[in-house]
Amino acid sequence: MIVDEQLWLDALVTRNNVAHAYNQAVALDIVRQTRETYYGMFCDLKDEIDRNWRP
Question: What is the mean pLDDT of residues 29-37?
Fold first, then answer.
């Protein structure tokens, strides 16, 4: 189901850094990474679930 394991692990690290996003630059970088990289990853997962895991 997960094609790029490293990308998912990177997303987990980024998510864990959200708790430490007191710095505006860090927070904005998290938003940028989410839009540019992780959003597509979640869309791909949704498509995979819709195609193969739903009745």
Answer: 90
